[in-house]
Amino acid sequence: MSLIVSSIQRKPKISASRKLMLKSLMVAKAKEELEQEILVKEEEKHRYLAERAPPLNTSTLSLGQLQDLCRELHAKIDVVDEERYDIEAKVMLNTREIKDLNIKVLDLRGKFKRPNLRRVRVSADAILRSLLGSKHKVSMDLRANLKSVKKEDAEKKRPVEDSDWRKNVEAMSGMEGRKKMFDAAKGPAQ
Q1: pTM for the whole thing?
Q2: DSSP per residue over 89-141, as a string?
Q3: Percentage helix, strand, coil, to 5, in the chain?
Q4: Residues 49, 71 within the same domain
Q5: Same domain membership, residue 66 and residue 106
Q6: What tens digit of pLDDT does each residue of 90-110 get?
Q7: pLDDT tens profile 7-34
Q8: For the chain, how many structural domains are there in total?
Q9: Were 124 and a residue from 72, 115, 140, 161 both cysteine, which residue would form a disulfide, CB within 3.0 to 4.6 Å?
Q10: DSSP 59-86
């Protein structure tokens, strides 16, 4: 009994207002770290561009030197495009391989998403045809295998009594009636 009472009277370790305050502090800290990360990435980008592409001074260059500079820049662009294409191809290959491996893992585990099944009315012939194939002609007419019973035979076996039902009940009551029922059940079996 004390176990039940202690679980009912149990208080949470942290109050709701304290939880809310901690959540807001966590969100604020995450926001600050995100802003800091964006600034660091921007600085890295500027440093990389300054290192790879120094500023151009085209005012002192002649027409021939400008054309040479354009050819060099086009050659560098071609090299970068080739590298980008190769990297994209590798990434696509890796993602395809990852997908295939994930599918293999799911198959090995045996846990795959099963589709929702719908009820479909299919005849017995269609089921047999799908199991045995279209070569086998099997008809499953269940009514053909049943024994036919004529109504006249059934009526002859069960004579209709027009007598009063009370007489029948009185005749079957007591020990004599039970003996008659026992003899009637025993009779056809011998």
Answers
A1: 0.34
A2: HHHHHHHHHHHHHHHHHHHHHT--PPPPP------HHHHHHHHH-SSS-----
A3: 70, 0, 30
A4: no
A5: yes
A6: 999 999 999 999 888 888 877
A7: 556 666 888 899 899 999 999 999 999 9
A8: 2
A9: 140
A10: TT--HHHHHHHHHHHHHHHHHHHHHHHH
